[in-house]
């Protein structure tokens, strides 16, 4: 029980990495506020946690809206009396090359993927300071430090998440708040499944992507959740401002 007595907010808890993280944290003894704009899927996460004896509450929020995000923190405080952990996971992906990216696409991606992380930090940090400290885990991406020609706005937003993580770590470290970013490579979630399915031969395309990894496969959501657990727990008590690359060796090579 690495998170016994803790209270965590996990955004994007209805699917993929967020769902795996919410379940993992609850299993380790944390109460979890499962945040998502998809009520149906996030309520399934809550039901799964409760069926195993864990504590979880659903909180609807569009993470790009300040009032919604403020309510997620209020829900943690009213339901469980404190807030110690925030996982900013919710994000969207719109594929477009830089010159094909419309202003609307750019704004949409940045509203969820970067402003959403900013709002999460903004409202969670005061509550964490009240609790005597806390841990923020921002789910960035390897695409925060390398480029993808088809994901211009997404890459820019993820780079912003890495920088904002360092700012949060530096500013609130003296008050006991740690902030770290996880940079996954591909993770087998609905987001990536949709990407594979865009190819005329998804099975072949999947194998082609696997071959680019030193480990010859992509991650499971649970493997990313385990890293989030490490960053949330006291096992990482001296780690802050870091960017943890969890990519099966995807970005270690030049050729
Ligand atoms: N899957 C990958 O390969 C991969 C790789 C690197 C980084 N990431 C990052 O990991 C995180 C999770 O990705 P995933 O693959 O699990 O995605 P996913 O699409 O499976 O799940 C994302 C969840 O976020 C929710 N969400 C989206 N926008 C929201 C909003 N505005 N407000 C509230 N909820 C919202 C969705 O409803 C969904 O439940 C994202 O930050 C993503 O950028 C994913």
CATH fold descriptor:
Rossmann fold
The low-confidence runs, each spanning 5 or more residues with pLDDT under 50, are none
Number of helices: 8
What's the level 1 CATH class? Alpha Beta
- The side-by-side strand order for the widest beta sheet comes to 3-2-1-4-5-6-7
Counted up, domains total 1
Order of helices and strands: EHEHEHEHEHEHHHE
The protein's oligomeric status is: single chain
Task: Tell me the overall shape.
Answer: globular
Give the helix proportion (percent range).
40-55%
* CATH architecture descriptor name: 3-Layer(aba) Sandwich
Task: Characterise the protein shown here.
With 255 residues, this protein is of the alpha/beta class. The protein has one domain: 3-Layer(aba) Sandwich (Rossmann fold), CATH 3.40.50.720. Helix content is 46%, strand content 15%. The protein has eight helices and seven strands; from the N terminus they run E-H-E-H-E-H-E-H-E-H-E-H-H-H-E. It has helices spanning 16-27, 39-51, 66-80, 103-130, 152-172, 190-197, 202-210, 221-232, and strands at 7-11, 31-36, 56-60, 85-88, 134-139, 177-184, 243-246. A seven-stranded parallel sheet has the order 3-2-1-4-5-6-7, sandwiched between helices. Strand 1, helix 1 (16-27) and strand 2 form a beta-alpha-beta unit. Helix 1 runs parallel beside helix 2 (39-51), helix 1 (16-27) crosses helix 8 (221-232) and helix 4 runs parallel beside helix 5. It is globular and about 50 Å long. The mean pLDDT is 98. Bound molecules: nicotinamide-adenine-dinucleotide. Residues 11-12, 14-18, 36-38, 41, 61-64, 89-92, 112, 139, 141, 184, 186-187, 189-192 line the site of nicotinamide-adenine-dinucleotide (NAD).
